[in-house]
């Protein structure tokens, strides 16, 4: 039976899960959850994700939430090497940079995406103070990334891993938004992101993110 992902592909956390399914070539189904009507807060969705958020994930009797945990499950099940689990030190570095992605990159990008895309879509006005504050935080993080990527081809070392591809959903919105030029000061980061965005799995999910109903 195909694995099921509940939530719109355009959501960054849903897209992270989808790219892992694409990486392992799994059969999967994206089940729509209409966030505009609050379906993610419905009892049916709450049974799958008690935080009332997307994504939720189902593989037979197993129900999971939290996109990075779901991603790891999919990669382990599919026998992918993107977690480097045969090497203790390498897998630890994957974990480090997955935490960095969550705590320094995506957490900083989330309010920027919300203010620059979601708020105007809902008819509101972007809070530029929030955007500027988070852009400053982003620049601080990107300085660390630049130093790292000057020494290694990828974040966890000289091998591509989940830590790299996990950045793609927020990076997609950064690259396509009005603050993309922030990356110009970080040439290694820019080149690394270009490579991440060019992975076939990422290109496939980017297409799904563009579909209005997905
Ligand atoms: C965060 C999920 C999340 O914030 C994860 O899965 O990694 N740590 C979790 N989901 C957002 C959509 S943005 O992609 C969401 O569901 N927001 C609606 C809400 O919180 O009510």
Q: Strand order across the biggest sheet?
A: 2-1-3-4
Shape from CA axes? globular
Kindly report how far apart the N and C termini lie. Answer: 21 Å
Please count the beta strands (DSSP E, at least 2 residues each). Answer: 4
Number of helices: 9
Order of helices and strands: EHEHEEHHHHHHH
Give the biggest beta sheet: 4 strands, mixed
Could you report the average pLDDT, rounded to the nearest whole number?
Answer: 97
Based on secondary structure, the structural category is alpha+beta
Low-confidence stretches: none
Account of the 3D structure:
A 4-stranded mixed beta sheet has the order 2-1-3-4, covered by helices on one side. The chain has 9 helices and 4 strands. The chain is α+β, with helices and mostly antiparallel strands and about 210 residues long. Helix content is about 55%, strand content about 5%. The protein has helices at about 10-25, 45, 65-75, 90-120, 130-150, 160-165, 170-175, 185-195, 200-210, and strands at about 5, 30, 55-60, 60-65. The model has no long low-confidence stretch (mean pLDDT about 95). Bound molecules: S-Hydroxy-Glutathione. The site of S-Hydroxy-Glutathione has 11 residues, from helix 1 and helix 3.
């Amino acid at each position: 039976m195909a694995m099921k992902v509940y939530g719109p592909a355009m959501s960054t956390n849903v897209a992270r899960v989808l790219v892992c399914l694409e990486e392992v070539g799994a059969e999967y189904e994206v089940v729509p959850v209409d966030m505009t009507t609050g379906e993610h807060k419905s009892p049916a969705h709450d049974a799958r994700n008690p935080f009332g958020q997307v994504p939720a994930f189902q593989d037979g009797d197993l129900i999971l939430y939290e996109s990075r945990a779901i991603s790891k499950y999919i990669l382990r099940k599919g026998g992918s090497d993107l977690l480097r689990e045969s090497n203790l030190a390498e897998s630890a570095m994957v974990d480090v940079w997955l935490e960095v992605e969550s705590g320094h990159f995506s957490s900083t990008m989330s309010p920027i995406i919300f203010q620059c895309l979601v708020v105007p879509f809902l008819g509101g006005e972007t809070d530029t103070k929030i955007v500027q504050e988070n852009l400053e935080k982003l620049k601080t993080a990107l300085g660390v990334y630049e130093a790292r990527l000057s020494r290694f081809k990828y974040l966890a070392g000289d091998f591509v891993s989940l830590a790299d591809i996990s950045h793609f959903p927020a990076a997609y919105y950064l690259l396509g938004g009005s603050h993309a030029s922030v990356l110009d000061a970080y040439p290694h980061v820019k080149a690394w992101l270009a490579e991440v965005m060019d992975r076939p799995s990422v290109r496939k999910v980017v297409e799904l993110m563009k579909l209005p109903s997905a």
